[in-house]
Amino acid sequence: MRIDTKLPKVGTTIFTVMSVLAAEHGAVNLGQGFPDFDVPVPLREALARAMREGRNQYAHTAGIPPLRIAIADKTLRCYGHRPNPDSEITVTSGASEAIFNAIAAVVRPGEEVIVLDPCYDCYEPAIDLAGGRAVHVPLDAATFAVDWAAVRAAVSPKTRLFMFNTPHNPSGVMFDASDIAELKRFVADFPDVLLLSDEVYEHIVFNGRRHESVLRYPELAARAFVISSFGKTYHCTGWKVGYCVAPPALSTEFRKVHQYNTFCTFTPAQWAFAEMIERHPEHDEELGAFYQAKRDRFAAQLAGTRLKALPVPGGYFQLVDYSAVSDLDDLDFCRWLTIEKGVTAIPLSPFYETPPAGQRLARLCFAKNEATLDAAIERLAKL
């Protein structure tokens, strides 16, 4: 039987490949981006209570009303904008589902989507499945800053959507006021191009920086799908719960895809998150400080190795330059580091259409217990 693949460029994700390799070789896994510490106790208790109370059946397809109301109130608290919980908020089975839904809802065959390289690996397959084409605009190879002139040059009559991610995975770089000013000019000059803002690390920001959510700016929010993740904020990536905020017309199209994709999302968790947001707003307010302490400790430890740590404004990934250690390309280096040295990292090249020549960077996740990070540093110090 002949099967013509719809995703010819896609194999097993690099995250799965490296995690399997880590398990095979007993390596400390700083590759895949998941915490190895527990979710907050009140959230665990709320989840168990919801299950005991029988909240185990299908939820409303857009999400249970108490959660959508809690999200609306939280968005007002954080960004000064309260989306309508009935028509502008949809709860999804993780941010990846939300990204897929948004692309499938508005991108038609032959249309183009601008993405910024390096970008998360689920973006382009979703574009391909919609029949669209990803147009890759590289970020600055040294600073990961956006080249706004290149973004504007990438727009064509076929451009339907512009996707971006702040804080950025894998670099941690964040949009600032100048980026928002450029984005405002972009939407003014290209009124038919929609936005998708991937903001899953929105609360993991450091050194007093402000997360520049699209939701702060009415002229941007009116054209955007804004994607968030409870898994990143509450240390529960395996629960796979996220949400999308979009204006009513975009949410209507988004929900058409969502209802035939997953229909609804894990019901007891929705009740737990609604309770957590309402009763414990301090969790997201203190999350940046929680992770900044981990970032600073890990960076100080890396200073005692031959790896050079790059600045990390936000998110929970640390990029390291390994050029003082090896001339291997990043895929071979990360395999060698796992097999021979017992620490697993993620190479950057899978995040690119065309990786920068000679780039020697790898991504480490510091969303780990101190014991995990200490064990990794002990091995990295021997490089």
Describe this protein with a few key phrases.
single chain, 383 residues, alpha/beta, Aspartate Aminotransferase, domain 1, Aspartate Aminotransferase, domain 2, seven-stranded mixed beta sheet, four-stranded antiparallel beta sheet, 14 helices, 13 strands, 15% strand, globular
Written overview of the protein:
The chain has 383 residues and is an alpha/beta fold. The chain folds into 2 domains: 14-39 and 283-380, Aspartate Aminotransferase, domain 1 (Alpha-Beta Complex); 54-280, 3-Layer(aba) Sandwich (Aspartate Aminotransferase, domain 2), CATH 3.40.640. It is built from 14 helices and 13 strands. The strands form 3 sheets. Strands 2-8-7-6-5-3-4 form a 7-stranded mixed β-sheet, sandwiched between helices. A 4-stranded antiparallel β-sheet has the order 9-10-13-12. A two-stranded parallel sheet has the order 1-11. α1 (14-25) runs parallel beside α13 (330-341), α2 (41-52) crosses α11 (267-279) and α4 crosses α10 (248-261). The longest helix has 21 residues, at 282-302. The radius of gyration is 20 Å and the shape is globular.
